[in-house]
Amino acid sequence: xxxxxxxxxxNEKIERHSAFVTNLMAGMEQTxxxxxxxxEALLLxxxxxxxxxxxxxxxxxxxKAIKTLASLIDAKFxxxxxxxxxxxxxxxxxxxYSQKDGEFKAKKGPVFANFVLADEINRAPAKVQSALLEAxxxxxxxxxxxxxxxxxxxxxxxxxxxxxxxxxxxLPEAQVDRFMLKVVIDYPKLEEExxxxxxxxxxxxxxxxxxxxxxxxxxxxxxxxxxxxxEKIEQYITDIVFATRYPEKYSLKxxxxxxxxxxxxRASINLALAARSxxxxxxxxxxxxxxxxxxxxxxxxxxxxxxxxxxxxxxTSEEIIxxxxxxxxxx
Length: 331
Description:
Radius of gyration: 21 Å
Helix content: 40-55%
CATH architecture of the largest domain: 3-Layer(aba) Sandwich
Number of strands: 13
CATH topology of the largest domain: Rossmann fold
Shape: globular
CATH class of the largest domain: Alpha Beta
Number of helices: 15
Order of helices and strands: HHHEHEEHEEEHHEEEHEHEHHEHHEHH
Mean pLDDT: 86
Strand order of the largest sheet: 3-6-9-1-10
């Protein structure tokens, strides 16, 4: 009985603290028509302190969505346009000799911001992408012999066009795994497309202004950690990730030859964090299996390695995840 009262209290607390989510979504809708999944994914990354990779063909408002979110929060925003001739120093910064002081000083790069838009991240070679690894994982940057802390919150929001295009470099596995979510953006619906045309030819698109600061984001993240995650849900998350590694143990023998490698413990952690944030966005104080299922594709699609056999049969990681979700017992 005491536990049910606690859950009720927690629900009320989450409802109070998650009210700003409605305002953020309304702010996003002023410039972004449709693309509800994209907006939710950006909010999940923001609340879970996780980086987000958006993939889709050009013109689907990936960059616009990120810039709108950054405008709604009073924080430092920087955009890095990834190109084949970009250097690591262009991202993290470098040492510059100061004639006035007679010594080398660190000139910090654009990565020193709260929101970093890595636009078309797969257009730059691996040495530039690797410059982001330390920043994304340790929230710090090493320039020469000195290490500098990055501002809080720190979020990398990257976009990429599908890999098949010419002049792109597939992201290294270590880099892809640093992204909490990989979101595949689809075309808008017919009615949404008509609204997009109307908005653009009439110049109706509104400018958005900041409705909250970084302090409120920090407070919201603390509340997200209080969202109740039952042991049965923990077991469900672990079973899903283990099924990507050992499908035969979950009566999925047909997947054994299709999966090169499954999700790492980082997949389990991010699945739990994203499910908590999803419950928070839905103004709920506890995680239900539907929350886990709602975020599973975005958390896992880039963490499952496909074998040559899978690629030859045109099997995608999304299909594998769907089969696992349909097979693993729901608590």
